[in-house]
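pipeline/complex-builder :: batch 7 item 3
reading input block
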Amino acid sequence: MKKQPTREKLLDITFEEVYINGYTATSVDAILKKASVPKGSMYHHFKSKKELVLAMVVERLFPKMDAFFSYEIKENESITQSFRNTFLVVSKNRLLVTYGCPLYRLMVELSATDKEFDAVLSTKVNEMKGGIKAMLEQGISLGEFDKSLNSETFATYMLTSVWGILSLSPSLSSSKTFLIQSQYILDSLEAYKLT
Amino acid sequence: MKKQPTREKLLDITFEEVYINGYTATSVDAILKKASVPKGSMYHHFKSKKELVLAMVVERLFPKMDAFFSYEIKENESITQSFRNTFLVVSKNRLLVTYGCPLYRLMVELSATDKEFDAVLSTKVNEMKGGIKAMLEQGISLGEFDKSLNSETFATYMLTSVWGILSLSPSLSSSKTFLIQSQYILDSLEAYKLT
DNA sequence: ATTCAATTAGACTATTTAGTCTAGTGACAG
DNA sequence: CTGTCACTAGACTAAATAGTCTAATTGAAT
């Protein structure tokens, strides 16, 4: 087993700790202890706790979001079915169902008070919104949905309601309830369905 | 202007600070300074920071939730219309639209790591879910919705998706977008409508 | 007015926090 | 083999943190 470079190990552990405990409640010392990395090494690679977490957001959290929520549409598959598939994949991810969406949780904690975090996190939100919007627009142009469907606002609705459902207390969440709830989101698409 | 009792003042300021900054990022000293209350007084009334915030949750946050989201149904009004009215009231609440639901935000921050907070916050979530569930059941018995509507899961969906929509970054939130998004939630009810 | 409990006041403590500093180590180029 | 430089190591610092302690003050009852 090859030794993982210090910087990469720090990013991995930082993701885990911040995901579960949040930014403020995660101490640098806790990260260093769990990663078995001395302080000097960390401050050699990152100039502050905030820089470390911002790097983690870009290099770990964002790629994970891309993996969690795909906007792929398979051959001969309706857009609705593509959404359903994505929800199914999400429902099978134990971490997501238990602890909610890490991007959303960080945004809830920090966006109101830290403009820098808000700016970084918001770009990803807008990118994801754009991905869903493009799918909806494809559905419109393919005649699956009515032209009256506002792809911009509906995309935002899908994103935020999924996050809301996911990020409930772990004691109130389960894979099964997520799947049922996400079906209701698809129900609201029915109003705009043509075929 | 009558002087507000120390304990009450502390609960008020604690709500404001924890709502915006979160539990961990709010220091006892910051609360005391803003409330102009000396440390001894606070620790006379509450045995710890956690006790102070738990008291705030029960005595301030919960009543506010009751005020924010009412389950009242006016004479000659459909259940659907009652929901629409509630959403309209919520959309006019600047704090809610800007900073999201304080109950949900606290749950996102603490439920995964603190069982005591999770237990207290979850009771209110279940109570609110029960309120919505009762409205949906009334709608079923009055013939507004089909019996196939699962009032339990749909109530959870309504609650969590509203919170998800509300608790997005302040920089991405507005009263208008909330109103549009909440309409999509009502759209998903259409599938179960009879009249 | 006097007593007494409730409350206020804030200096103090122990711990944890993010961050600094300087000395060392090791790999690699010449 | 040697000099260099990126990285490691962890003791150290200053600030902030939650919480303690004892003395002073207040207000209500007698």
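note: The two ends of chain B are 54 Å apart (CA to CA).
queue -> next item
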